[in-house]
## 1
Amino acid sequence: KENVSRMRVAWSWSLPNGANESTPLVHDGVLFVYGYGDVVQALDATTGDLLWEYSRHLSRAGGFKKSIALYGSHVFTATADGHLIALDAKTGEVMWDVQIGPEGTRANGGPLVAKDKIIIGTARAGGDARGAGLDFYGGGRIIAFDAATGSEAWRFRTLPGPNEPGGHSWNGLPLESRSGGAIWTPGSYDPLLNLVFFGPAPTYDTGGLRERVQDSELNNDALYTNATLALNADTGELVWHFQHLPNDQWDHDWAFERQIMMLPVDGVMTRVVVTAGKLSIHDVVEAETGRYLFSMDLGLQNVVTNIDPNTGAKTVDADKIPGDGQVKFVCPHVEGGKNWIPSAVNPNTKILYVPIVESCMYMTPVAEGERGLLTGVRISLRARDGSDGLYGRIQAINLETRTTVWIDRQRAPTSSGVLATAGGLVFAGYLDRMFAAYDDATGERLWSTRLNEVPNSAPITYAVNGK
């Protein structure tokens, strides 16, 4: 806090043109970064000089990833043509290359390291899990590979079939009609419990789920969408799941980061998983069992009217559910509230720093056959009722007391992840290209600079040569 006002640029490096969402990694004085078009670069962390570059030459434009991974002497990345590759961290040479799904498979989240395995979640092109072969009916996949050889260890399908556990929750729809359940964000690994946590997205084809069928054996919750999945890292076995928002009709994904930490719960230090969807409601569950503990609603949504304090079950406003031919005013917008840009937590103070965009939407019925994000609905951006024109928001929440510590709001929407440091700072970036540092206790802005482009990933800190 005392010297951040003197911070300056040490070096800069231009990434390939296109969307860049990947968090950089640093090891042994080398910074590894992923660029749009399936480009991985190794840079000297002191000077920014290029050490090596890997570029995958595809017949179509490459995609973007939110993460790359380091394990042993390899760098791991997914590619736009549905492959997972291991690169030599010293040279960039391809060590192995495996196909993780059919043409059109997307792995935008990127890989996760868990012991000696590389685990990655997938989706179909356009977010729809159907088509392109029976193997990709029924949602996304979570797939584990041996880090040394690339051989497949296990895979888990995010949407169960009719005769599988959870399969009764799709209103009787056959497996080939079940869509969504994409994995858009890297998972989290708990080495103490040997569990990996992933969050499948909602469905994008809601027509068959809107009305509950009159069959006592069926419901329309649509498992395992908008759930936290806890999988055994060795076997891929589902250990537990907790569904945060069943039958999501608004694309309010609960598909983002799962943060693992220790919190006092009823006077007992408990290992917990904290996660939120676009509604900016945070659910806290026990990491070992998935037992619901508590929720925190940051007050930016108008869909959920009540949360059961014992189970976490959410009551939604029936007037906000689309499909009755009426226009719906819903908060937040599908790109707003809490989104994929990650929050940060200070493990000492237990304060969570959440990047948010304050926005709402009109959900307007469309004519039969007209395309919309969800079945029969067109979405348009609108400000919140009574908006003062400030859309960017950082909210600091004490997870022990479950109270807001401070809020910073500004006109430009928040566009980057948040970084909390041991030096008492919080960093965040915005759509106006500003990158700023705040006092983590008060929210006072202590420093800012304008970048050459919009910051659109997660900031990191690192040390090299004593700096």
Note: The longest strand covers residues 268-276.
## 2
Amino acid sequence: LEHNTKITYLDRYHTEDVHEVFRKAFSADVYITSTNALTISGKLFNVDRNGNRVAAMIYGPKKVIVLAGINKIVKDDEAAIKRIQTMASPANCLRLKQDTPCTKTGFCVDCRSDARLCASHVVQDYCHIEDRIHVIIMMKEAGY
């Protein structure tokens, strides 16, 4: 970055209008996120409640940086889905204090709860825009 570069940080946790932050993220130069699972072949598996995160990963921001702990790396598609159902979704529901069946069972039961966080399922295995998506694997466990 140049010395006089202006950076605007959009933080959904420190705003009165979270949906406005979601919309502004689509025009961001850089979007930083994580992933629910990353296969050895390079596919990103993600689930969202609102779809804002997966939508921004697919389209909008000029660059997408995906930070992934080594705990997110899985063998294949089946393992990615299992990781989401038994780890990511229940843990995120607990973190966000959602009253869903998975917070009690520890695994997804494909509920129809209004508190459900796993409404949009997205698998990304290719981006036609060269150098748009960058996956950084952190050599430690991070996130759910």
Note: DSSP finds four helices and seven strands in the chain.
